[in-house]
Amino acid sequence: MDNNHIKNRSPWTWIPTLYFAEGMPYVVAMTVAVIMYKRLGISNTDIALYTSWLYLPWVIKPFWSPFVDIIKTKRWWIVTMQLLIGAGMAGVAFLIPMAFYFQTTLAVLWLIAFSSATHDIAADGFYMLALDSGKQSFFVGIRSTFYRLAMISGQGLLIILAGALEHFTGNIRMAWSVTFFVLSGLFVLFFVYHRFMLPRPVSDATKASGTAKDIFREFGKTFASFFQKKGIVLAIIFMLLYRLGEAMLVKMAAPFLLDPRTAGGLGLTTEQVGLVYGTVGVIALTLGGIVGGIVASRKGLKYWIWPMALSITLPHLAYLYLSWFLPSSFVLINIAVAVEQFGYGFGFTAYMLYLIYFADGDHKTAHYAICTGFMALGMMLPGMIAGWLQDLFGYQHFFIWIMICAVPTLAIIPFLKIDKEYGKKSLKG
């Protein structure tokens, strides 16, 4: 790409803010909403079932990605979605004090999730259009870092803020309403900033209307070709089952930390959960991912698939330990959550590498998008029943069930066909 055709602006002025903005609504939909509804008195069954539906936009994202490509520019989609997300956050803030807040805030959160998934499509496409291949490689670590910082800010700082407001106001609903107003203001600032600071690549142009039919025809062929790939049935089973235990654990981790000891939980405050799960946990998750990437680049995916699969399943024992012994030591709770999250980050490396490996070939970008749809589905479906199972079993037996869920994950691995050299070259570039 000829950079002379792009408005001269350093990627440092927009990549960090763009990927921070990409990560924040995702963590709000996936984690912050769970903690908020728990604090507002919603049952674990309802929390898990209804917040799992918020995954749906990411599941079906590959189906409407052609619209983002055809209608308007990627830049237009980015700033418009940020404004809609900001409006959605304000909508949640207004609705929390209302009588029917659960149904109405869920509806608005689903719209935020839809806008966020659309923003993901546009932002990732814009990244490839605005940077040449050298800069794409250089900034890939930067964008991942700021996406992780958004997770820490959402699961950590935001929850700590909400907890502090709970204590200061003595009103849980008001505290969470103010928290979402803060989020709304943040996204209005993102909208204004990116409206002026994002570059305008010449290649980021609206597709001619006459090509829409051809694009949809090509998309249909591409989509169909994915299901004709060799080993597709086994691959889909692996995509759906690899995170089976984690998909259920992630929905019940925060409620378990928040629930009183009389209900089998650890009885932590909102601020403590923000520190344990949103800060220490996310840092451990990030470190696990970094270590996973380093070791996989040396010996490849086939060598590390077993250690990583064990790593994503066995550390769930940390929650089993917490539920059986209910330790009061805050340091010990932090260590247990950090161990589980580090294992998840380390084990998740194999999963992402396998998705890239399976998507390789013709139409690899579109095929990878379909793989991520199955990845989201693998989190959504188990998550929907997690609260019901926890209410049925209690926390102790629920975490035993989570350990049993390791069996399907491990059972599928011996049947996977993976090139012995894969992962070495792909991660070294």
Give a description of the structure.
It is a single chain. With 429 residues, this protein is mainly α. Helices cover 79% and strands 0% of the residues. It is globular and about 60 Å long. The N terminus and C terminus are likely disordered.
Helix-strand layout with pairing:
Layout: H1 15-39, H2 44-52, H3 56-59, H4 61-70, H5 74-95, H6 101-130, H7 133-169, H8 172-197, H9 212-226, H10 232-241, H11 244-258, H12 270-299, H13 301-313, H14 317-325, H15 330-359, H16 364-393, H17 395-404, H18 406-412, H19 424-428
Helix pairs in contact: 1-2, 1-6, 1-7, 1-8, 1-11, 2-16, 4-6, 5-6, 5-8, 7-8, 7-12, 10-16, 11-16, 11-17, 12-13, 12-15, 13-15, 14-15, 14-17, 15-16, 16-17
